[in-house]
Amino acid sequence: MRIDSPRRREHLKAVADRLPAHLERLTWTADQIAQERQRALRETLAHAKANSPWYCERLARVDPDTFTEADLTSLPIMTKTDVMENWDDIVTDRRLTLAGANAHITAKLRGETHDYYYLDDTEIFATGGSSGTRGVFVWGWNEFIEIACITNRYQSRDEPPSPGKETGRRLLAVIEAGETVHGSPFLFSVTPDPHTDVRWFPAASPMADLVAELNKAQPTHINGFASTVQALAGEALAGRLKIRPKHVATNSEPLMPEARTLVKQAWNIDINNMWGCVEVGHIGIECDAHEGLHLSDDAIITEFVDHDDRPVANPEDVEKVLVTSLFNRVQPIIRYELTDMAIPAATPCSCGAVYPLVREIRGRADDAFRYAGGIAIHPLLFRTPLGQNPMIEEYQVRQTEDGASVAVVARGDVDIGQIKSDIVVALKAGGLTDPHIEIVMVDRIARHRETGKLKRFLPLG
Ligand SMILES: [Zn+2]
Questions:
Q1: Whole-prediction pTM
Q2: Which end of the chain is more exposed for a tag (fewer CB within 10 A), N or C?
Q3: Cβ of 302: how many Cβ atoms within 10 Å?
């Protein structure tokens, strides 16, 4: 895939023009960030109330001029179901309708249009939903610029382009969903360095083909789904993938600790992880200090809450987060529920940016497998026996009535009996009395058709 058009080039130019302002934001004090949040929150509420029929009603009693962040808890929570059921009334641009957006998505999937822009200045993306609910989201011209700058600003700070100096060849391999209905090919192919070439590689390619293509291309930078990057590091350790990237960024899927370890072993570098979603863009970005992911606190308000949406005192009690975009004007997102279990860090990053850190993203709380008798098994329990086994390249766990069926892509001979008994031990420790585990060896695990993502844990129902 090659994403290019006059409009796209214009967009990339606008991102490059805006990036210096975002680099400056990284030097802001906590007070400056707080002031900007206050200003932008009021602007967000005023715009939503004035231009969205849904918000006009919902925010009827809100006075944007006097609203403060402390008042946020008085606002109702927004879900993906709210977005989908009230789509036409939520958006602030009256040209946009869900029917029109869906028709555009269908036309792109069928190859009937190659125009990435809808109505000239918006982009429409569909999520396959790790939550199971399909969502349709829109980024306006400015929303894309802000999201792209937030995605790239730490890298731009930590690895600045040096004009006039010999920086060597730079090739960014973007290994993402091949479909243009997903935001990742558009966003992750933006590079903060104008001297970097960009090439796309579909994550859904057979691994041997992907390895061959990458061996040919010799990328210096890689941006890909966490599961793909993990598999590639395994290929490098097996001696088949012969590249020496100096920057590897992961996105879109929970990053398993074993992926970090494999990348370190393979290329002696630390992954720069990103945490985001199509609804608001990147909530957290890991800088080169690798101490956690910096919250995008100047652009997104993130509330860490428990199951009942109450703020948590203990970071370990976080069950989900509520996000408010401070820049999305076309489809306002205010106190939107994400079921990511993100654990805030207690200490600031040593890089000097005061944006607080999240130390871990644990994947989604709604991935928990719930069994009869009220027993909830967190997918983490499967990770040690499966993720730590060096012979397992990839896996997918599907919940069954009394256990799970596990699809495994192996690198060579694996001891199925051993894996099975390791999982049974883990599940028994988790409270399931007589778990039944089935292991199925497969050649590959299908990605979601629209997003290209690997859904690693599939709960029943
Ligand atoms: Zn940092």
A1: 0.84
A2: C
A3: 20
